[in-house]
Design goal:
With 299 residues, the protein is of the alpha+beta class. The chain folds into two domains: 126 residues, DNA primase, PRIM domain (Alpha-Beta Complex); 124 residues, no CATH class. The protein is 36% helix and 17% strand. The protein contains ten helices and twelve strands. The strands form four sheets. A four-stranded antiparallel beta sheet has the order 2-1-3-9, with no helix packed on it. Strand 4 and strand 5 form a beta hairpin. The longest helix has 22 residues. The N and C termini lie close together (11 Å). The relative contact order is 0.18. Bound molecules: zinc ion. The site of zinc ion has 7 residues, from helix 4. Zinc ion (ZN) binds next to helix 4.
């Protein structure tokens, strides 16, 4: 599939005929008046900022008339969203962009995407969600297809007030090597799963021994076998684990997670650069963006 930019005419067609207010997730409708909205009207970035809407109808009218190139809303709730003042709380978000993935199964060059790396991005998102659920007991989690990757949006009430989010980011992305790699649960388990994701996709492995045994190495680590990397020496083993942790740290955009005033592409809006719909994912396992997030003017 070709990811071609939408024309002004196509944007208007999308917002007039296809976009519906009910496509906006309930968690945004319910908090509409506490959010800051931002718009990019010409493809030069979200310069129209500090927009607020008091009613769903006002918002609907705005979108239908303006047919923005891109639309965003704050992840934060403000008492005065039009001034970005009196911050109340903010969703915890993770931004996984397929075009920036440091490891992927396809041959896309940086900045490009295909069906395969979109699949990699989803697998990564689901792995992180699983860790958020099992390690932080978070339940109110939404997955959004962003147009070129995925957003994870956490709306558990008690999580919305956490201001220092870097530790959660480091934990669920497995950004450092655990002291006890083989502990059954907790961080070591998160690390082993992320190791499997990353190590299975690393391309610049020079050791023939490792390349030959890659699947077995992963399987053994997931089985918590201390001999999982016996084909190399101890220092090489340590180097590999560190290298994987470093790659893990860059798989999602940490800047987005730690920023409690971030704006995020609005689910239901059109990502005009690639002509795809930013969409709340209902069925996480079966969702296929190339079938479900393509606007009608491209089909
Ligand atoms: Zn690709």
């Amino acid at each position: 599939m070709e990811f071609k930019e939408a024309t002004l005419e196509e944007r208007h067609m999308y917002y007039k005929k296809e976009w519906k207010i009910k496509d906006l997730p309930d968690f945004l409708i319910d908090s509409l008046k506490y959010r800051e909205f931002c718009f990019d009207h010409d493809g030069n970035g979200p310069k129209d900022r500090y927009e607020t809407f008091n009613s769903v109808r006002d918002f609907e009218r705005f979108m239908k008339i303006k047919a923005p190139y891109a639309a965003y809303s704050s992840i934060s709730y403000y008492k005065k969203p039009g001034k970005r003042e009196n911050w109340m709380k903010a969703e915890i978000v993770f931004d996984i962009d397929a075009k920036d993935l440091k490891v992927r199964r396809c041959d896309c060059t940086p900045g490009n995407i295909c069906e395969i790396c979109l699949g990699d991005a989803k697998e990564l998102a689901l792995t992180i969600i699983d860790s958020l659920r099992s390690n932080f007991d978070l339940k109110n989690i939404f997955l959004v297809y962003s147009g070129r990757g995925y957003h994870i949006r956490v709306l558990d009430e008690e999580a919305l007030y956490i201001e220092d989010r870097s530790k959660i980011f480091d934990y669920v992305t497995a950004s450092h090597v655990p002291k006890d790699l083989f502990m059954l649960h907790g961080y070591p388990e998160v690390f082993r799963r992320m190791f499997a994701f990353t190590f299975s996709r690393i391309k610049d492995i020079r050791s023939k021994e490792i390349l030959k045994n890659r699947d077995e190495i992963i399987k053994r680590l997931l089985d918590r076998r201390i001999d999982f990397l016996d084909c190399v020496g101890e220092s090489t083993k340590r180097r590999i684990l560190k290298n994987v942790a470093e790659i893990n740290a860059g798989l999602a955009d940490g800047k987005v997670t730690i920023d409690t005033k971030r704006i995020l592409r609005l689910p239901s809006s059109l990502h005009s650069k690639v002509s795809m719909i930013c969409k709340l994912v209902k069925n996480w396992e079966s969702f296929d963006p190339l079938k479900e997030a393509v606007p009608k003017f491209r089909t």
